[in-house]
Amino acid sequence: MVKKLKQNPARFPGAEAIENKGWIKAHRWLLLRRLSQLSILALFLAGPLFGLWIVKGNIASSLTFDILPLSDPYILLQSLAAGFVPTATAFIGAAIVLAAYFFLGGRIYCSWVCPMNIVTDTAGWLRRKLGISGGLGLSLSKQTRYWLLASTLILAAITGTLVWEAVNPVTLLYRGILYGMGLGWLLILAVFLFDLLISKNGWCGHLCPMGAFYSLPALISPVRISAVKREQCNDCMDCFAVCPEKQVIYTPLRGADQGISPVISSPNCTNCGRCIDVCNESVFQFGLQQPFKSKSLSPKKEVTHEST
Amino acid sequence: MSAQNKTASNRRRFLKESGRSLGIVMCLALGLGVNSRQGRALPARALRPPGALPEDDFNAACIRCGLCVRDCPFDILHLATPEQHIPTGTPYFIAREKGCEMCEDIPCIPACPTNALNHDLTNIDDARMGLAVLVDQEACIAFQGLRCEVCFNICPVRGEAITLEYIHNQRSDKHAMFIPIVHSDSCTGCGKCEQACILDETAIRVLPMALAKGLLGKHYRLGWEQKQQAGGSMVTPDTEHKYNLPEGMRYDYDGVGLIDERPAAAPEEATSVPGLDVLNQKGKP
Ligand code: SF4
Ligand code: SF4
Ligand code: SF4
Ligand code: SF4
Q1: Which residue, of A92, A123, A226, A235, has the fewest CB within 10 Å?
Q2: What per-residue confidence (pLDDT) applies to A269?
Q3: Considering the domain boundaries, does residue A6 fall inside one?
Q4: Does B161 have pLDDT greater than 90?
C-alpha cells in the first residue's frame, strides 16, 4: 500500500519550482496554453474587430481562410441526435477536428482551446490563494459528466433541438465574445462561483459534458504526459494540488512497485502540463504512448472519486 | 480501520456520491427539457434568414456557429443571447430594425455548414422568411385617404408582393384611396416594408407564416373553381326557375324585373268622404 500523503496547507503549490526554475519556467506550459487559447480567440476576433477575416464563425463551426471548415463533433452529434443530418461540410469539419484530438489527446481541447478553462482555472487558483477548501459539502462523482453527456444527447433526441447548446457555457462564452453576450455573463459567473465556493474543479472536473466528450478520443491518443522520473518524486504533492484531474496522476506516479507504466494514460488528463510546471524535481514530461497499449486504461484503476 | 471495512465504506461513499450525482443530472436534464419546450416558439418579431428550414427542423439543424451572420454583407443578422425568447445562439433578424436586402447571390445560405439554411434555395424571390400583413388599417394613413405608398415603393418585389387597389373614399366622397394589398405568392418576407413604414408603430408587419396565413377547411370546394376545372357545371344542368306569381305576371331576371301583363282593369270609381279633400291639402296653412 502506498502511504497516504497530506499536502502541507501552508505552502503554495509550485513555490519551490518558482524559486528554483524562475517564474517563467515554472509557468511555461501555463503561459503557452493561455497563449494558445487567446490566440485562437484573437484569430476569431480579428475579423469583427479589424476586418481581418482569417477565421469566421465560432468554435461550434468555423471557416479558416475561406477554405478549411472545422466543426465541433460534439455539437454535430447533438444535431444528429436531434434527428438532422447536416451537409458534408459539417462532417468533414468534424472529422478533421476529431482526427486532431485523437492524435493530440482529446482533452487538450480543454486546456489549450476552451475559453471556459481560463474561467475555471482562475476559480481554482483563487480557491488555492484564499485557502478555500471543501465547499457546501457537495462532492460529485467524476462520472457525473458522462451521465450528463448521455443526457444531453437523449434530450436532443426527445426534444428535437440542441437543448444543451442553450446553456453550454463553453459555446456561450465564445459566441458571446464574438457575437454579443447578452445576459450570458450570468451563467459564466455562476460556473465561476460554483468552482470557487461550492465544488473544487466542479465544472470541468465533474460536470462538463463537452470535456467528457473530448475525453473519449483521448482513450487512444499517443501524446500523453508521463512521470518519467518518478523515482525523483519527493512527495511534495504540488502536482496533485494544481492538477484539475488529480486522480489521473496517482497510479502512474506511484505505481512503480506494481510495474505500472509512468505514462498518464487516463483520458481525463487534459495535457495541460501544469504538473510539469510546478514540479521542482522535473518528474513529468510530455511524451508519446503507443495507442491501445496502456496499462492503466481501465478507469477502475484510477481513484475516481475524491472528497472536496 | 481494517482493509475490509475500508472497502465497504469506500463502496458506500461511491454509491452515495453516484446516487447524488445521478439525481443532480436528472434534475438538470428535466429542467433543460422543460426549458427547451418553452423556448421553442419563435417570437413573432424575430425572423429567420432566407432559406431557413421550418422552425422545428431548424432548431435541430443549426449548430449556432454564426457563419451566416458573418457573411451577410448588410449585417442584419444576429445570434440570440440567452435572455431572449429565441433559441440561444440561433440567427434572426428584426424587420423593423433592418430588413433583409434580398441579395441576389444570397451569401448567408452557402455560408451555412449544416444546411439549416437550405442550400437548394438559389432564387431569393422564392424565399419565404415570413409574410407581410397590414395589421392596422386604423393607423395606416392610406386608409385615411392620404397618399403614402411607402411600403409599395420600397418593396423589392415591386408591384407584385404589394399592389395598390383604388377604393372610393367615402369620407370626401370624391377621392380614391390607394390601399396596399400584400400577395402571399410573391412576398418574400424580407421586412423592407415594415422597416420603411412611416408610422411611429408600423402598420404593416412581417409575421411568421404560421401567424400570417389562414387556412380553408380541407372539405371546402369553391364552386366556381371546380366548375372551371371540370370545364362545366358539375351538377344536373340548371332547370329554369319558376316564380310563383299571379296569373298574367312574369319576372325577368335580367333586369326588367316584375312584368305585369294582366289586362288593364277598369279604373275604380273615386270614393270620397266629407272633409277628406281638406286633409289631403298639403303645405297650406
Ligand atoms: S471541461 Fe468543459 S469547460 Fe472545462 S475546459 Fe473542458 S470543455 Fe472547457
Ligand atoms: S439575403 Fe443578404 S441581406 Fe438577406 S440575410 Fe442573406 S445575406 Fe443578409
Ligand atoms: S450558418 Fe447555419 S448553422 Fe451556422 S448559425 Fe447560421 S443557420 Fe445556424
Ligand atoms: S416583406 Fe414587404 S417589402 Fe418584403 S417582399 Fe414582402 S411586401 Fe415586399
Answers
A1: A235
A2: 87
A3: no
A4: yes
Domain residues for the domain of A252 are: 225-301
Residue A26 resides in a domain: no
Residue A89 within any structural domain of the chain:
yes
The DSSP line for chain B is: --HHHHHHHHHHHHHHHHHHHHHHHHHHHHHHHHHHHHTTSPPTTEEPPTTBPPHHHHHHH-----HHHHH-TT---EEPPTTSSS-TT-EEEETTT------TT-THHHH-SSSSB-TT---GGG--S-EEEE--TTT-GGGGT----HHHHH-TTTTTSEEEEEEE-TTTSS-EEEEEEE-TTT-----HHHHH--SSS-SEEEE-HHHH-----TT---HHHHHHHHTS-SSSPPPPP-----TTEEEETTTTEEEE-SPPPPPPPP---TTHHHHH--S--
Q: Would you state the pLDDT for residue B1?
A: 46
Which of A47, A76, A89 is closest, CB to CB, to B70?
Answer: A47
Q: How many domains does chain A have?
A: 2
In a domain, A269, yes or no: yes
Average pLDDT, chain B: 85
pLDDT in the model for residue B20? 74
For ligand 2, the distance from its centroid to the CA atom of residue B238, given in whole angstroms, is 56
Location of C-alpha cell 436532443:
A156
Please name which of B86, B114, B40 lies closest in space to residue A57, comparing C-alpha atoms: B114
Q: What is the ipTM of this complex?
A: 0.82
pLDDT value at residue A5: 46
Atom of ligand 2 nearest to the CA of B127: 1
The list of chain A residues with pLDDT below 70 reads 1-11, 134-138, 290-308
- How far is A110 from A102, CA to CA, in rounded Å? 14
Residue B283 pLDDT > 80, yes or no? no
Chain B closest-CA separation from residue A303 CA (Å): 11
pLDDT band for position B268 (cuts 50, 70, 90): low
* Closest CA relative to residue B242, chosen from B232, B250, B230: B250
Residues B229-233: contacts with CB under 8 Å, at least 24 apart: none
The predicted model gives B68-89 an average pLDDT of: 91
The string of DSSP letters for A169-195 reads HHHHHHHHHHH--TTHHHHHHHHHHII
Phi-psi region of A14 (alpha: psi -120 to 50; beta: other; left: phi over 0): left
Q: pLDDT category, B38, cuts 50, 70, 90? A: low
* Ligand 1 atom nearest A145 alpha carbon: 1
Which chain A residue lies closest to B69 (C-alpha atoms)?
A57
Interchain proximity A71–B70, CB inside 8 Å: no
Residue with CA closest to ligand 3 atom 6: B68
In this predicted structure, what is the pLDDT of residue A134? 66
pLDDT of residue A298: 42
In this structure, are A262 and A129 located in the same domain?
A: no
Mark which of A215, A237, A256 sits at the end of a domain: A215
